[in-house]
Structures are given as C-alpha cells and as structure tokens.
What does this fold into?
Amino acid sequence: MTIVTATPISTLLRDGTATAHSQAENTSFMSALGSGNLTRQDAVNLTAQYYFIYTALEQAARRGCSADPEGVTTSRIADPRLERVPALGRDLAAMIGPDWREQISPLPATRQYVATLEHIPDADAPALIAHHYVRYLGDIAGGQVIARVLAGHYGFTADELNFYDFSAIGKIPPYRKQYKDTLDSLPFDEVERASLLSNARQAFTLNSRVFIELAG
It folds into this structure.
C-alpha cells in the first residue's frame, strides 16, 4: 500500500512562489541595486518604503498573535526577535537625520501593500504567515548579500544597516531550518495551505510593484 503524504509547507511555498520570487528579485531596480549601478539616495528610498511596509506587517503579526491565544499558528511563526521597525528607524535617522519622519512618504505601491496588510483579518493565520514568510525569510538570507552590497558599493556604515542585523536570532542557517520546520508542523488543511500559497504569491507581487515604482 502506498501512503501519500502532503508536500511539506516549506516546500510548497518555495516551489509555488519560485516564479514570483524570481520576478521580484530580478526587477530592474533590484538588479541595478545589486550591481552597484544605483545611487545612495535610491537605497535610502528603498529603506524608507520598508519602514512603512514593516510597520504594517509587524502590527498585523501582533494582532494575529493576539487572535492565536493557544499559540498554534501565527504565534509560532511571529518571532519578536525578527521585528525590523526599530532598526529601520535607526537606519533612517543615520541616513537622513533627526527629521527623517518628515522626509519620507510611501509610494502608491507601498500604500497598496500597507492596505493589504492592514485588511488581513486577525484570525487569518495563513495570510499573516504567508506575508511574514516572504519578507523575513528573505531578509535573513538574501538580505545579508544586500547589506554587503550597500556597504561595498554605496558606502553605508553599520549605523545605517541595522535592518540587516539579525544577530538576535543567533546563527542564520539553523534559524532558517527551525523556521521551516515550524512551517511544516503547522496544522493547516488543504484550503488553508492553498490560501497560504496564494497570499505568498501576492506578497511577492506587492514587493515587485514597490521595486518597479522605485525604479521610476
């Protein structure tokens, strides 16, 4: 007798978002950023958009944790050590100055991204976890490459790159494995798994739109 097992959630997300992930990663803005062909101001602009996105994302994650009192879904993924808003504030203060809040504003694509996050129901664990996965798992992996690019090509200092500092979680490879293992253990049925994948694809699309507008 053949026993059919469900695809692990981490594999479902990796394979099911591969095209959307590649499209976001290879937008003209991100490609030029990685090649050192943009300006310092372009990188500051990216950091500013992240501030709005992560403010909404982290507020949504905290609401989701409150709606998960037994700690079986969102609370297991939304590790407070990953939160980026305080780090982004320090980076922008170093990049722009003490009046940085008055100097930045969200792009239309960023406002759309923020609105999407704000409208996720608190108890919609698949949607919350999908958006969490897309941003944070990328940050603790590919983000480290971007940090080196920003330092090497654009002259950013450590005081301006707090966003990419994940020393609070310890070594990144074992943390990534733990994160994926936790994903795989989530008690999602097929409908919830489909929602998880759909929302993860949407998250990559929203990121791509921000990158496209930054290029413009």
